[in-house]
């Protein structure tokens, strides 16, 4: 299952198209000293360290 990051505006434009599944995920910054400087979290936590990514299944 592949995903591509869309802007929120792009997602809104595609939102009425059939058979396109969207998943909103968030990236939590872990710091530059880790092998993976971010991790995906499924639920938003109010924090300025989270960036919203609207994903389109392709």
Helices and strands, with pairings:
Layout: E1 3-6, H1 8-14, E2 22-29, E3 38-41, E4 50-57
Antiparallel strand pairs: 1-4, 2-3, 2-4
- Strand residues, percent: 35-45%
Strand order of the largest sheet: 1-4-2-3
Strand element count: 4
**Which bin fits the share of residues in helices?**
10-25%
Give the N-terminus to C-terminus distance in angstroms: 7 Å
For this entry, what is the oligomeric state of its chains?
single chain
Poorly predicted spans: none
Average pLDDT number: 65
What is the total number of structural domains? 1
Order of helices and strands: EHEEE
- Count of runs of 4 or more consecutive helical residues: 1
- Major sheet: size, sense and barrel closure? 4 strands, antiparallel
Shape: elongated
- Rg from alpha-carbon coordinates: 13 Å
Q: How does the helix and strand content classify structurally?
A: mainly beta
């Amino acid at each position: 299952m592949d995903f591509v990051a869309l802007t929120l505006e792009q997602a809104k434009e595609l939102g009425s198209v059939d058979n396109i599944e969207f998943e909103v995920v968030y990236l939590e910054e872990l710091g530059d000293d880790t092998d993976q400087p971010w991790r995906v979290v499924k639920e938003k936590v109010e924090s300025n360290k989270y960036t919203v990514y609207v994903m389109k299944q392709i």
